[in-house]
Prior knowledge:
The chain starts with a strand and ends with a helix. It is of the alpha/beta class. The chain has an 8-stranded mixed beta sheet with strand order 3-4-2-1-5-6-7-8, with helices on both faces. The protein has 14 helices and 14 strands. The longest helix is centred in the last third of the chain and has 19 residues, at 370-388.
Amino acid sequence: xxxxVCFLITEHPFLDARIFRKEAKxxxxxxxxxxxxxxxxxxxxxxxxxxxxxxxxxxxxFFHEGIKIVTYEQMYPENQIKNLHYNLHSGDHxxxxxxxxxxxIEQQADIYHxxxxxxxxxGIGVKRALTTKGKACKLIYDSHExxxxxxxxxxxxxxxxxxxxxxxxxxxxxxxxxxxxxIKSRHHTINPRLPxxxxxxxxxxxxxxKPGQGRKRDLTIAFEGVIDSKRGSFRKLMDIVKxxxxxxxxxxxxxxxVKKSSKQQSLPIPSxxxxxxxxxxxxxxxxxxxxxxxxxxxxxxxxxxxSLNNRYAMPNKFFSYLNNGIxxxxxxxxxxxxxIEAYQCGYIVKRRQAQATDYVQALIQLHSNRKQxxxxxxxxRNIMETHFSWEQMxxxxxxxxxxxx
Length: 405
């Protein structure tokens, strides 16, 4: 008999790469009946690039690529922390009245899989309610990020309540999946007995891979993801390109860009860099490898000084680069640094907050040592082929589910 699985989601778009493209689709191939309960914004579902599906997916519930999608209007539970904290510690299920919990109870699933801090809260309510009705179910917390993050700006009382909520919720959780070893360790300090598995945000192995990074006269660096005035360090990236071109020919390819839901419509490219900056726009999940062809280095820049989550991050773009044999250039973030040093697949700028000049020095060094780029490129692709592609990660996902059956 197939098992019914229900994904609980409060923030992510329903076509999210990790949630829909990888986990849901992989579980479906194993015979699980997968339902996803996902949020709408003002009545509409939204895509990974922030665009709104105005003419599609209008039904309250529907099937998409074999996955059942159930929808609700997005809620904002972060505004009710005190109430949520009280509800958790009441030990009761009747106070869990949010739409995600209600819809979750209706599914009568065997396994619930929560993808955020607040969807885990709803999952606790679902599990309590079904238990009182004699329905046994299991609850997984898929911790994509470190929440709460002790270094971000947030009131001391809010952090205190969130930490107490997390400890309470983990006590009622059956298994945790997360995206980095450091987040795993941090959760284990809260609950040492809890089974925790690291499943990286790796894509399926890119086909038609052709090695050759670092063999052209110029260099091309890539940025994948959201980049605007607040995220992605666009100004820093432009400074890097400008300064490097005083020494050698550097181009940048931006795969993604400004979210379509953003009020900011475009990014101002300095006039002297117009022929050095290429925007591919937002690419479909399957088209990313093609967009990365001829890229020599993948750039990641995170503020690891003021966010523990950034120090622990292993983002999608990290594995997208490696998947295409592209070495990583990143500032000092704990988990990426350890990974790169272990597999010799990138270059670390030893600063928690790196400046444009720090990256320029690194790129000048790499420009003068093309053999290093080529060797890092081969190492990057090799470790994805042997250890870290989604084909490897889904085996770990299946193992988690098999333990819960």
